[in-house]
UniProtKB/TrEMBL annotation:
Transmembrane segments: none annotated. Signal peptide: none annotated. InterPro entries: Aromatic_CoA_ox/epox, Ferritin-like, Ferritin-like_SF, PaaA, PaaA_PaaC. NCBIfam families: PA_CoA_Oxy1. This is 1,2-phenylacetyl-CoA epoxidase subunit PaaA.
């Protein structure tokens, strides 16, 4: 332990300043950041798969170009986040091995299937919408490289959210079949999107400490409520119904009341028994193996360049 370092760390947190990679930090602070950042990075990388499913089948050239750009952004977000985690001393190969071995978490939401085109709309509107709601406060996270990565990610996520909303808006202005497709998709994605914020506050083991360290700024339930309050007027503009019969404005609280979430489903998905857990990991493993030659070539090139510099 470094007494001066600890005092300085506590001062930084108390002043709501930023902790930088060269600063002393408690091991538990480092560990929880690596846990949260790597989980987020893996979510971005695995999160490319549900949408990649539709790149080859997008209904127009324009839609295809937009979807490709979005999925590429997700790869980029993964890279910023792996870089932020690397400044804490855990390298990307290690995190990748944990992902492929199935021992690392990624967001529950990416274990749901995308059978219809409307799912591209729902992912943008609901999944990216939830992501922004969760991540805007993370731009102020106490760890510098993480907060700064989040600023750029949030800007890109806003575009993703709007493109999803616009897909649904187009479908809702279409034929009865298209409207039905949009509604059916929203019905499937609504509850899983609410689960993205994590377990209820009284069952969230990490929240209290993460909030004391200024990593998380708002609780899981607090963010979930903020998200629901945001969605209701947007659903009205779209003309879709949110599939919760208990959803109603509570004048006293100044928030929408909502029905209970199915936490058994959440725990099943986390335990690996969601619709697509096995498929997502298998695809990731295969892509990693298929990319071995690229890593080998990049390493050989880097070595040759280093040797040349020494000459
Ligand atoms: N799925 O004590 P807490 C995106 C775990 S957005 C799976 O409350 P914490 C953009 C949690 O890790 C999605 N696991 O934990 C995109 C912990 O287990 P651990 C990614 C979950 O950390 C859009 C345990 O449950 N965004 O990718 C989930 O304080 C479209 C107990 O929970 C982020 O990761 C879940 N939903 O709060 C990409 C944002 N919820 O780690 C492509 C950053 C909880 O102890 C297409 N992360 N768990 O083994 C966070 O803000 C936090 O980590 C929370 C969880 C809020 C997710």
């Amino acid at each position: 332990d470094d007494a001066d370092g600890r005092t300085r760390f506590e001062e930084l947190i108390a002043a709501d300043d930023r902790v930088e990679p060269s600063d002393w930090m408690p091991e538990a602070y480092r560990k929880t950041l690596v846990r949260q950042i790597s989980q987020h990075a893996h979510s971005e990388v695995i999160g490319m798969q549900p949408e990649a499913n539709w790149i080859g089948r997008a209904p127009s050239l324009k839609r295809k170009a937009i979807l490709m750009a979005k999925v590429q952004d997700e790869a980029g977000h993964g890279l910023y986040l792996y870089s932020a985690a690397q400044t804490l001393g855990t390298d990307r190969d290690t995190m990748f091995e944990q992902l492929i071995a199935g021992s690392a978490k990624y967001s529950s939401i990416f274990n749901y299937l995308t059978p219809t085109w409307a799912d591209m709309g729902s992912i943008g509107w609901l999944v990216d919408g939830a992501a922004i709601c969760n991540q805007v406060p993370l731009c102020r996270a106490s760890y510098g490289p993480y907060g700064r990565a989040m600023v750029r990610i949030c800007k890109e996520e806003s575009f993703h959210q709007r493109q999803g909303f616009e897909i649904l808006l187009s479908l809702m202005a279409g034929t009865p079949e298209q409207r039905a497709m949009a509604q059916e998709s929203v019905n499937r994605w609504y509850w899983p999107a609410l689960m993205m914020f994590g377990p209820p506050d009284d069952e969230s083991p990490n929240s209290q400490q993460s909030m004391a360290w200024n990593i998380k700024r708002l609780s899981n339930d607090g963010l979930r409520q903020r998200f629901i309050d945001m969605l209701v007027p947007q659903a009205e503009v779209l003309g879709v119904t949110l599939p919760d019969p208990d959803l109603r404005w509570n004048e006293e609280r100044g928030h929408y009341d909502h029905g209970p979430l199915d936490w058994d489903e959440f725990h099943e998905v986390l335990a690996g028994r969601g619709q697509a857990n096995a498929q997502r990991l298998e695809r990731r493993r295969q892509a990693h193996e298929d990319g071995a030659w690229v890593r080998e070539a990049a390493r050989a090139y880097a070595e040759r360049m280093a040797a040349r510099r020494e000459e």
